[in-house]
Amino acid sequence: MSAYNRVVKLTVISDVICPNCNIGQHELIGAISYCQDTLHLPLTFEIEFLPFRLIPTRLLPDDNAPKVSKDEFFTSTVGKEPWANMQASIMKWAQEKNIPIAFKGLVSQSTRAHRLSRKAYQIGGQNKQLPFLCAVFRAYLEENKDVADLDVLSDLAEQTGVMSKKEALDFLHSDELLEEVNTMCEKVRSKVTGVPMTIIDGKWCVQGGQSSDVFIQIFKKLADTGVSAAPSPFAAPVVALTA
After folding, report:
1. By percentage, how much of the chain surpasses pLDDT 90?
2. Percent of the chain with pLDDT over 70
3. Contact criterion met (CB below 8 Å) for 132 and 120
């Protein structure tokens, strides 16, 4: 890292079962890669993903809930037409990016995946958390796997180098990080209207699954302000999530 690089802290609030969050993550990572590899901006990025539960546990409990298909669940909760419109919008993006997103398989509650994501971050920061989350998104949205299933999650943890399958199963059978994840989800839900939300340097936010071009323009502005603290290049501050 250059001594003159500005470190940009990105805090992304998202849910692993949220298609728009998957879009947002693809676009954000694409923008970061372009800014570093093509534009060579003097920026270094630190990314942390925080949990959000898209589906409240009153609608889909964490444990021992009857399994239901995505189509049946979302048709009954949001309505047939809104569900069809959402699928069409996501599929348009997926086809443009050549990503085989599908809406088959079972709907999953995301608490267990969030716990493993937080553990991955504790173990190795973004170098462990980001590959794990990418694998969870791919398993749920492309491979139609149940990412609340212990075997699925423990396999993903091992495949992405977070921990061994046995260690992951032991972790998931424990209560470690359960209270932390539940508290984070409740706090965020009380202050955030939708996800994904990307918070930049703890001060400004980008709402929704924006295109990589939006992030590239933001990162260019940040590079222009230099290393030292500077006036915001954005319109408004983000609400405090730690209060």
Report:
1. 79
2. 91
3. yes
